[in-house]
Amino acid sequence: MSEYKVKFEVFEGPLDLLLYLIKKEEVDIYEVNLTKLATQFIEYIEMMREFDLEIAGEFLVMASTLMYIKSRELLPVDQQAQLEGEEEGEDPRWELIRQLVEYKKFKDAAAQLQKLEATQENVFPRVPGKLEFESDQPAPKPDVSIFDLLNAVNSVLKRFEKREGATRDIFEDKWTVSEKIEYVVRVLASREAVRFSELFEDATSRSEVVCTFLALLELIRLKQLVCAQSEDFGEIEIKKRADAVAASAPTDAPQVAPDTSA
Amino acid sequence: MELKFILESLLFSAQKPLSPAELREVFVNAAVEEGADATVKSLKKIKESELTAALEQLAKEHETAGRSYRLACVAGSWQFVTQPDYGPWLKALVGVKARPSRLSQPALETLAIIAYRQPITRAEVEQIRGVNVDGTMQTLLERGLVEATGRAEVVGRPSLYGTTPLFLEYFGLAALEGLPAADELRKIVVEKPPAPVTADAGLATNPPEQLQMTEGTEPKPESTPAS
Q: For helices A146-165 and A206-221, what crossing angle results, to 10°?
């Protein structure tokens, strides 16, 4: 009996359970002894109750159908009551077996689909590289407008609102735009792209954020960087300009360098 | 130049699976190109059926050649795909395919019923499975494998459901006819002998013939149907 316990979660419904019981009996669906099946099915329901499991309504409906079939078997044919609305030939056993056969077929079909699903995971389509004959490169992602950038920097600045709201200290600006240009260039030298917020992660004050932001704008103006946003209101990504790296790096880089020394 | 090899070259370099209609368009476009030669022009008015025949021929040739890839028709569009046996290495090369998690047993059963019996109402699916299918239907709808295709002309006009092209793609099927054992399970609904019961319309399958024999094999005398 304890084997039921292990199998408990497996049954999708009463039909599934019936199929399992039939399979255990090792008989064909058409030859199954429904009376015996009814007893086993109800034993199972009892078990569920003992384990304090919630019994789905469908199981109870099936149990009552089986009980009905079983009770009918006890009576000789000529004394069996004709239920109202139940036409002659509407044998409940028929209906149940038909349902079981049909369900079994679809269960087998589902197993076939499962096999196909697993196979399909291992099928890879040929995906040729994009044929690029046209020279003009499409923009990598939707362009970012100055307003998007301002929005982004505003949200960074909000971080400092609370901190600096109460008291205001006056101190000399420790940061210069040229220093920050160097910083941004350095960050992007080692990486393909950087997230907008990452650039400001280490910033300790409003003025530092502003300096970094101005540096960013300057680099964009010098066509050293591009900003891209993969989705509306998404994180802005900063990348080196693909063409700038090769073409203008030698000319622009020295321009940046003197700034820092100034 | 053979048509099938032109098609082969097209599918070899295509960015996505191509349907016969899309391929036909390519032939038309090539023919109107300036300087198109006689061969190209002669194929301008090629029919889709001719393309399909050539594609099938080509697929067969690839199959018999026993290469590591084959020409597959999925949801009506053709493309080159690898044989499943080479999955382990391809996974290592291109990474595991971005595919949603595998379908659960109830979802597969529900999907199978819808696939073979579409269009079908939710109640009819429930009657076959013997359990409520609200949850699994929701999953299947969300994953885009099934969709509402109309309404049944019965009381309450319940929605009818069918599978989507994505379903074919997901299982790598060319068409619904390609479903395993399709002819048996898709059998057109056979009316039950006239009965006043209308609640389970559209549910009936062919009553299994062996049933008559069951009565004989059963030991109980009272088991003869009341008919």
A: 170
Query: Could you give the CA distance from residue B96 to residue A168 in angstroms, rounded to a whole number?
Result: 55
CA distance to A23, A54, A154, per residue, from A16 (Å): 11, 17, 60
d(CA B46, CA B150): 35
B95 CB within 8 Å of a chain A CB: no
Q: What is the pLDDT of residues B102-146, one digit of tens each?
A: 898 889 999 999 999 888 999 999 988 888 888 899 999 999 999
Distance, in Å, from the CA atom of B104 to the CA atom of A114, rounded to the nearest integer, reads: 9
Q: Domains of chain B, with CATH numbers?
A: 3-83 (1.10.10.10), 105-185 (1.10.10.10)
Q: How many residues does chain B have?
A: 227
In CATH terms, A146-261 corresponds, of 1.10.10.580, 1.10.3720.10, 1.10.10.60, 2.102.10.10, to: 1.10.10.580
Q: What's the rounded Cα separation, in Å, for the pair B38 and A187? A: 59
State how far the Cα of A116 lies from the Cα of B178, in Å rounded to an integer: 11
Chain B residue numbers with beta carbons less than 8 Å from the beta carbon of A101 are 205, 208
Residue B111 and residue B103 in contact, taking contact as beta carbons nearer than 8 Å: yes
CB B18 within 8 A of CB B79: yes
pLDDT of A18 strictly over 70: yes
Phi and psi angles of residue A237, each rounded to the nearest 5 degrees, phi first:
-110, 140
Distance between CA atoms of residues B210 and B79, nearest Å: 45
From the list A101, A125, A126, the residue facing B208 with the nearest CB is: A101
- Of A1-5, A153-157, A199-203, B122-126, the least confident: A1-5
Only one residue has tokens 């891209």, namely A228
ipTM of the complex: 0.71
Does B171 sit within 8 Å of A116, measured CB to CB?
yes
Residue B141 is predicted with a pLDDT of 94
Of B103, B181, B223, the CB nearest to A109: B181
Cis peptide before B119 (omega within 30 of 0): yes
Q: What is the CA radius of gyration of chain B?
A: 24
Question: Does B200 or A116 have the greater pLDDT score?
Answer: A116
pLDDT of residue B143: 92
Task: Check B205 against A116: CB less than 8 A apart.
Answer: no
